[in-house]
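Readers outside the structure-tokenisation community will struggle with the description of the input data as it stands. I therefore recommend that a typical entry be quoted early in the introduction. An entry of this sort, consisting of the sequence and the corresponding backbone structure tokens, reads as follows:
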Amino acid sequence: MSNGPRVSIVTPCLNMGRYLEEAIRSVLAQDYEAIEYIVIDGGSTDNTLEILERYKDRLRYESRPDSGAAEAINRGFALAGGGIFAYLNADDLYLPGAVRAAAQALAEHPDAGVVYGSASWIDADGAVVGEYPTRAFDRELLGRECFICQPAAFIRSGVFDRAGRMDATLQYTFDYDLWLRIARLYPMHRMDARLAHSRMHLENKTLGRRRQVFQETLAMLERNEGYVPFTWVYSYTCYRRDGRDQFFDPLAPSVRSYLAALPMGLARNRRHPWRFLREWFRVMSWAGLLRRLQATHSEPRP
């Protein structure tokens, strides 16, 4: 496809030399000619610059310290000239035909500010370990869960600017924050196509810094939505109890965590206490809670 709008793709990276070349190749192998590719490196000390030098004839890159990925993405898009923006983390991958399919979807849905497809989770070695739970666009549901997989999303450049670009004060939830702000202004269109692989490994921020991710997400939702849903509060209370990453080591339901979620949720939702109480009560009836408490107390101690 050679007659479509230019697509500007930015990759923020910092010491991701182990995965970077694979990400670069997934961009350069796309069957869409009008691609502008920019890599913004935060001052890596591994082999990142050696890799970028090998591909300098096919991409543009800069390397200097920054405050994080959100700032790097903003810097990259400030240099870009495309009508469509996308950003691909250095450990993620595009699937063949992803850019072409996204450009076509944006052309077919002129009202959409963002188009997004489905994606698979892969591990450090590239093996598929699950499917990202992508859903059809629903603004209310988006306030409760992030169902848009970032590497599978493509944004109109004017929409990115009007929404206020990335919040560079955020380190972990800047993509979710951006989707929420865009969704106030424009609809989003879910594509029936698999576009990307999102890599999950303990070196990435999402899994490696779970406490900080939860804390920033709760604060971001409180600021953006004025409300922190039960699911986020409960997941955080579970994490605080057992330290599970809730991906490779799945969330373990707990009556104690359920009970602990109540005061935390009420503290986070001082303006909407009854809304949170209704959510909390819907999860478990009093009779069910009493049965679970009785079962917990009757279990033999080791």
Observations:
- DSSP finds 13 helices and nine strands in the chain.
- Residues 297-302 have pLDDT under 50 and may be disordered.
- Residues 12 and 72 are 6 Å apart (CA to CA).
- Residues 210-225 form the longest helix (16 residues).
